[in-house]
Specification:
12 helices; globular
């Protein structure tokens, strides 16, 4: 894959991830059923990818698989809370609430890994908090926008926890295999709760669920992994920070979810903080690798 094709692939992957909220809103099923259906089609897609693409790492042993299953529970909870936010408050607010996850990652890394948090990183957390205050139309906890934003923020927290767990569990493991085991954990864990609702899934919802699992999970993840082999981590992190932009723009076009100026200002702060935080993180990772150290 050439650098130009890798850039195209990473933008396409970010667009597909951004479509998750849009497809979740299009589906009439409950958030739990949507999460189950997404995992079902993701497992099928990832199985095909694992058979077709060469492995990029080792197969997980049983100890690692247990860790991946725990990660799957966090991923499933992240999807569930995100789709609840979409149903309650719309794609824009849900997506911006989720976009707060880099702030949680910075704080949790300092707490769990005892890593020193720099002043600029606290500044990024402050920017995210200010952005979330601007995104909130009102501070009435009973209102749909506030409830949806809170679910979106919870979704971001769960994703941050998943990212930190993956940092400890997935090192050296083939990325597709890791995603496959995590989605399999969601599928098995939700099967007892979603089984009775499967016959009632509207016919059109199967299309949205298939797109969620195949495009927004299996293909998007594969594009991300493939592009990382060519592009620097800091480049991919900046592009993936545009995911909320894609999601909000498509929701604006499809559902007439026109954001207010205040919401746009908050979104700019959150996305800016996400880009800076991601770049800081990728630079820190690069500095600790042998190839990046001074000779």
């Amino acid at each position: 894959m050439t650098p130009r094709n890798a850039l195209l692939a990473i933008h396409l992957g970010a667009l597909m991830f951004g479509l998750s909220g849009v497809l979740g809103k299009l589906a009439e099923s409950s958030p739990l059923t949507i999460t189950f259906g997404r995992a079902l089609f993701a497992v099928l897609a990832l199985l095909i990818v694992a058979l077709l693409l060469p492995s990029s790492g080792a197969r997980p042993d049983w100890r690692r698989r247990c860790g991946l299953m725990v990660g799957g529970m966090l991923l499933g909870a992240h999807w569930l809370t995100f789709f609840i936010a979409v149903k309650v408050a719309g794609v824009g607010i849900a997506t911006l609430g989720f976009a707060s996850f880099p702030a949680f990652t910075l704080l949790l890394e300092g707490l769990l890994f005892r890593e020193r948090t720099r002043l600029i990183e606290y500044t990024m957390v402050g920017l995210v908090c200010l952005g979330l205050l601007l995104v909130t139309p009102s501070f009435d906890a009973a209102s749909a926008p506030t409830t949806g934003l809170l679910y979106g923020i919870l979704s971001g927290l769960l994703f941050a926890l998943l990212s930190l767990l993956n940092r400890a569990v997935t090192r050296g493991i083939d990325a597709v295999q890791a995603a496959l085991w995590q989605n399999l954990a969601i599928l098995v864990g939700l099967l007892p709760f979603a089984w009775s609702s499967i016959p009632a899934i509207p016919a059109q919802d199967w299309l949205w669920l298939a797109l969620l699992g195949v495009l927004c999970t299996g293909l998007a993840h594969s594009l991300f992994v493939a592009s990382l082999r060519v592009l620097k981590a800091r480049t991919t992190s900046v592009i993936f920070a545009l995911e909320p932009v894609y999601g909000i723009a498509i929701a604006w076009w499809l559902f007439s979810e026109q954001p207010t100026l205040r919401m746009l200002a908050g979104g700019v702060l959150i996305i800016l903080a996400s880009i800076i935080a991601s770049r800081l993180k990728s630079e820190a990772v690069a500095a600790t690798t042998p190839s990046a150290r001074p000779r």
